[in-house]
Amino acid sequence: SSGINAEYGEATMQMENFDAFGKSDQGSSSMHPSDAVKMQEAMRQIQMALAMESQMDIIKSMNEKCFERCIYKPSNSALGGSERQCIAKCMDRFQDGLKVVNQTIMQRSRTEAEAMQNSAGMSL
After folding, report:
1. Does the chain have fewer CB atoms within 10 Å around its N or its C terminus?
2. HSE-up of residue 19 (Cα within 13 Å, Cβ side)
3. Cβ–Cβ contacts within 10 Å for residue 81, how many?
């Protein structure tokens, strides 16, 4: 709905939000089902693009950190054996750290979801 704020003379407009099936938060369904499917597909593509960007950021960070730790004298020649070994170990440690972080996040999410379900079950 839209209106005018008389005190300030400003026009105000409230946006209507739609779920993936075209139903608005105001209870009406003014979106055609094919548009809802298109919107859902667009949302999926955006989520995939964000996930890919996140992965690229992680790889970039890993490359920067391991390069800083392992390459002492950058040159045009191939990496030496100790540099290759250092990079391999650094990347392994970085990936192990990511696994721990991801597992911790997943566990916390599960714990919070269970707590919310339990508290919702108690209020019924």
Report:
1. C
2. 8
3. 8
Q: 124 or 71, which is more confident?
A: 71
- Sort strands 2-5 and 10-13 into parallel, antiparallel or unpaired: antiparallel
Q: In the 8-state DSSP scheme, what is residue 15?
A: P
In DSSP terms, which residues pair with 18 in a beta bridge?
Answer: 24
Q: Which amino acid is at 63?
A: N
pLDDT at 16 over 80: no
What is the four-CA torsion angle of 52, 58, 59, 63, rounded to 10 degrees? 160
The yes-or-no verdict on residue 6 having pLDDT over 90 is no
85-90 mean pLDDT? 94
pTM higher than 0.90 for the full model?
no
Tell me which amino acid residue 43 is: M
- Give residue 42's identity as a one-letter amino acid code: A
